[in-house]
Amino acid sequence: MWLKIERHRDHDLVIFGGEDHKTGQSDDTNVCFDRLERTLRSMNGDIDITHRWSGQVIEPHGGLPLIGGSGNLYISTGYAGQGMTFGTAGAMLIADLIANEKNARENAWAKVFDPARVHAHMTVREFITENLGFPKHLVADRLTSHDVEAKAARALEHTLFVVEEIRPARPGLFPPTVSSGYLDPRSGRGHWRVTSGGDLVSETAIDNGRVQRYDAGDNTLTIADSCSAFASGCADVLDPLEIYRRALESGTAKVERDGENWRLTLRGAADVEQVVSVDGKTFLPTRIVWRENGRPVSTVRFVTLERDVQPAPEQLTMDPHPGADVRQLNENGARVRTLSERPTEVPAGDYWLGESYAGAAPKAFAVHTTAGDALRIEYGPFTVWNYDTYLPAEIVAASTGPSISGAGAGFSFGSNTVRRAAARARAERPLLVAGDGVFWSDAAAELRAFAERMQIPVYTRRAAQGAMTALVHGGAPHSDAPTAIAAYQTFLKLAPDDPNASVVRAQLKQLRTNASG
Question: What's 145-313's CATH class?
């Protein structure tokens, strides 16, 4: 190791070096940097590391450079870090050698630096020992950049459980944090929490692009169809592992050997890049260094990275955050506003709870917002939502705590799945889960888990048509009598003595009468 100090009026500039190793034969260059930093801080802890670099120093056998040549080819290399001295000597020697071609002058040092001298001074044994690792690296390096990127991407095509330590490159830049949670790239779902000192900083859930993020600092829950809608962008919203996984899809990584492992450099916007250490056997990331304008900003260390885990449904969904301020963003990052609400009839094909529920007649409203449209049907304190691309904020609020706007219960029928808000409904009657074409298998599991907690009996029926739907006792898809009849028949078959069976029989009779008429 070596140390150089340059004195200034208000500070000292220190250059500290060491941890030498053969080029390409260190398992992890970052480990070398860490050792140097620990050694330097042991001398003086009050330091601010602004730059770090690693360069190749060519050291010929015997310690002297290779300077010489003839005709039209001359070389001067192998300065071993002493370029100021040997570079000057090389220039003088080559000038004499060129002049000596015309018998102008000789140089007494020509034989000392002659490149051909290596064969005379190095034994066969020394040559073999020195170059023992060359064939292995020659073969290994034939792996192309695309091969490594592809293997690194495939290594993440699993359901993952991850725990990461995120630390600033310089003390005081930001508080150290820990991120932990699950990622399932195949289903497009993920859920993780960020803590600092044991306290929750944020919680994020993604579901096929849609993002829900809770920030503990201001008790806000923000929903958007994409992480790009957030002012801070995806880099601040997504888990570091998910950011790395998405960056790999670009196929533009700079791939370098790092001993037995690999180092991938992936550039982002505004001179931001992530330098990722990848295990040479599993091709899983072990460390990520974020840099901006070439300077390290933060380091992510993977404490745990398990593949092929099987998280429970609640481990991929947001925790309750009662009283959170719910904000919804459109694709441009602006907060979603309701443009109009107008009374309407329940369109054919939409889901409702029938002509009456809990003694109340339905009141339907067409809701038009800057993010899309939805249908709200009110049965007194109960509310039914029908929606597609637009997820009403009331449903999100219901899934994170008590329903807002004084609603006593909420049933939601969204595209492709029963949203989690449906499982939050304050129902007191049996739930019938019916449907086909189930896209997310945990929808039914969520309903069952909710029913078990509330001690509500659940009966399952797979209908022939339609997406995943939840038929609450007394409810049916509007103008979809066959599905409703099948659900009620299943209910009576499985629970003929249920207290509500007489009501179900009456409704089934009415449905059959309507269908035959």
Answer: mainly beta
